[in-house]
Write a structure and sequence with these properties.
Layout (H helix, E strand, L loop, with lengths): L2 E2 L7 H23 L2 H17 L5 E2 L3 H37 L3 H20 L2 H11 L5 H8 L3 H18 L7 H14 L4
Antiparallel strand pairs: 1-2
Helix pairs in contact: 1-2, 1-3, 2-3, 4-7, 4-8, 5-7, 6-7
Length: 195
């Protein structure tokens, strides 16, 4: 049975009641998958936030509880996949990047890439660069960046999109060396916090 957002939860008071009733069991479910307190809380809060934001046009195929558990499950899987990508990247930086940097030729190429990356970073407007820096170096979520800078989530997304577009354009000739570029970019950000 398909239904729209239940009318009893379409008010702030009703929604608050749903949140209070479902938060703890959903948190326990998320924690069982993620085994991380902060991530589990964030996942459940994000699910409720999206539910509230899209309440006018959301379609619920089953009942609200089944919908919430499925949404939390999907968000947890996305979080776990993101963690795997971060772990692979970290492994690459600690193993492959130093090997690459051993030869004199690769050291020269690395220096050239650092120069290109520095020029590319300087082409990014200051506000975009700040958002990019907080996301990539400080590893803050878009939500955390928005709170820290007093911006809307949409503005943060737009600023990141603009920064990434500029970098893609400026570094397009270096895409075959993409993983090395990422490692150097990460290193560059850590060593140039004044940008």
């Amino acid at each position: 049975m398909t239904s729209t957002f239940p009318m009893s939860w379409d008010t702030e008071r009703g929604f608050e009641g749903l949140f209070k009733e479902q938060f703890k069991p959903l948190y326990r479910y998320a924690f069982g998958l993620l085994e991380d307190t902060m991530q589990s809380e964030e996942v459940v809060q994000d699910v409720f936030l999206k539910l509230w934001q899209h309440r006018d046009h959301i379609t619920i195929e089953t009942n609200i509880n089944a919908y919430l558990y499925r949404a939390v499950h999907n968000q947890c899987m996305n979080t776990l996949n993101h963690e795997k990508v971060k772990a692979k990247y970290s492994q690459f930086v600690t193993s492959a990047a130093p090997t690459y940097a051993e030869s004199p030729l690769s050291a020269m190429q690395t220096k050239e890439l650092q120069g290109v990356i520095k020029k590319a970073m300087l082409k990014i407007p200051e506000k975009c660069r700040t958002v990019f820096h907080l996301s990539r170096q400080d590893e803050l979520s878009y939500k955390e960046i928005a709170a820290k800078l007093g911006l809307s989530l949409k503005t943060v997304e737009n600023q990141m999109g603009k920064a990434l577009k500029i970098l893609r354009t400026e570094l397009k000739d270096y895409l075959p060396l993409f993983m090395v570029v990422i490692a150097i970019l990460k290193s560059f950000l850590f060593n140039n916090t004044d940008l």
